[in-house]
Design a protein that fits this description.
Elements: H1 3-6, H2 10-19, E1 42-47, H3 51-63, E2 67-74, H4 77-87, E3 100-102, H5 106-111, E4 118-121, H6 128-137, E5 141-144, H7 152-167, E6 172-174, H8 182-192, E7 199-208, H9 222-228, H10 234-237, H11 240-243, H12 246-256, E8 262-268, E9 283-289, E10 295-302, E11 309-316, E12 320-324, E13 327-331, E14 336-337, H13 345-358, H14 367-386, E15 390-391, H15 392-396
Parallel strand pairs: 1-2, 1-4, 2-3, 4-5, 5-6, 7-10
Antiparallel strand pairs: 7-11, 8-9, 8-15, 9-10, 11-12, 12-13, 13-14
Length: 431
């Protein structure tokens, strides 16, 4: 494996962002592939073949009859084979042995293909910035799962790639499905029209039980164990405030209409203390402050035996809005409950992307706002890990870059569990 190809150093990444404006525009045209019925196909390449990637591929095929999965890529051969076996049950999956790519550089091999119109990016979040930037460079339309980075360096790359997507008329949709869920769309319109008055406060939650973990096998290197158990390593997942709670934070930013300007936070590790859970926290609480003095209290927890709540509440001067997946209501003023049809938002988001690509709707580029929502979550993690308040500018401009020295199946230390106010490396989080 050529490490230079798969692990660009910091100087290379900075150069990529700085010189992007000078790149030649890449035409955003569909591959001229015609199926047996004489209809033009929308060819999709899947990068990241785990459960979410496989699900997203199904959603894409359900979204458009002309959608075809034509190529797949993953670091692990067994993950790719399992996903391909499941997707092959559908006639819209046309993947052959020659259309499968394995390894850390598999994404580049897939994106080299001229017949791929759209890429689905569904690897662990750490890889999203480099995969997204490469997709835009190659002129691909993009569906990318949330979150879109795990550190400020990655966010800056995503922001630059999103700007280049605009320059090259490429369509981008992110996997924050609430943005395409009818109950959320309806209540956000009511918030915008003033039915709760001026938003003055918010709170949001993703409190739930534990998630899956994979026990380490004797033949696995450190890198393989961490990749296969990626939820529990902040360099791969961003910790669960970033990987999961970003949904709620995105909804709050949407309702308030901006990102926060500073935050203070706390968190820790009380129930998942075994080494099998890496070094991440199991709970966070963050007070986000917005430019107009609005505060949003954020809470997320993953722990068995505890109460569960996944919800957003926005308090206005005339009432409040309460939202969660499949449900929305207004209280304390213009009382209202959502009762309309609520189509599967995981499918609707792909329909929206395909319509944008075909020119059937205004072109979508959700890269900018999902970068801000992901940065909101990263900012909260940085404050909780360090025990220090942090502003938006400090967080976004921090030098924190969590990439490993190389992408290969090598030995890789587990980072220290953060001890707010005491862990030495925390002082460098935004130096």
């Amino acid at each position: 494996m050529n490490q230079e190809d798969t692990n660009p150093d910091r100087r290379t990444m900075v150069k990529l962002a700085a010189t992007a404006a000078g790149l030649a525009a890449v035409p955003a045209t569909l591959a001229q592939a015609i199926d047996a019925r004489g209809q033009q196909r929308l060819n999709i390449g899947l990068i990241g073949c785990g459960g979410r990637g496989t699900g997203a591929a199904y959603n894409a095929m359900d979204a458009s009859p002309e959608a075809r999965v034509v190529a797949m890529a993953d670091v692990f051969d067994d993950s790719l084979r399992n996903s391909r076996h499941n997707l092959a049950k559908r006639d819209q999956c046309l993947v052959t042995d020659g259309d499968c790519y394995v390894g850390f550089d598999a994404y580049k091999k897939l994106m080299q293909r001229d017949d791929v119109d759209v890429v689905i990016l569904a690897t662990p979040p750490h890889f999203r910035p480099m995969h997204y930037a490469h997709a835009i460079e190659k002129g691909k339309h993009v569906f990318m799962e949330k979150p879109v980075a795990v550190d400020p360096a990655g966010i800056r790359l995503v922001m630059e790639a999103s700007r280049r997507a605009d320059e090259n008329s490429l369509s981008v949709v992110a996997g924050t499905q609430r943005r395409h869920e009818q109950c959320y769309l309806d209540i956000m319109e009511r918030i915008r029209s003033g039915e709760i008055g001026q938003p003055v406060a918010a709170r949001c939650y993703w409190n739930m039980g534990g998630l899956w973990k994979r026990d380490r096998q004797p033949e696995w290197t450190d890198m393989e164990w961490q990749l296969r158990n990626w939820l529990y390593f902040a360099w791969l997942s961003g910790d669960h405030i970033v990987e999961q709670h970003v949904h709620n934070l995105d909804a709050v930013n949407w309702a308030i209409g901006s990102h926060p300007v500073r935050c203070t936070a706390m968190g820790g590790r009380q129930s998942r203390i075994d080494e099998a859970y890496g070094h991440v926290f199991d709970h966070f609480a963050v007070d986000y402050e917005y430019a107009d003095g609005v505060h949003a209290m954020s809470m997320c927890r993953q722990g068995d035996g505890c109460s569960s709540k996944v919800e957003e509440v926005v308090q206005g001067t005339k009432g409040r809005a309460v939202t969660s997946s499949g449900r929305a209501r207004l209280e304390g003023g213009s009382d209202w409950i959502f009762t309309a049809d609520n189509p599967n938002p995981y499918q609707v988001e792909h329909q929206a992307l395909h319509e944008s690509i075909r020119g059937d709707s205004t072109r979508l580029n959700e890269g900018h706002r999902i970068a801000e929502s992901t940065m909101t979550a990263i900012m909260g993690r940085m404050a909780a890990y360090s025990g220090r308040d942090i502003t938006w500018e400090e967080a976004l401009n921090a030098e924190l870059d969590m990439r490993p020295e190389q992408y290969d199946f090598v030995e890789l230390d587990v980072p220290q569990i953060a001890r707010p106010g005491r862990t030495a490396h925390d002082a460098e989080l935004w130096s």
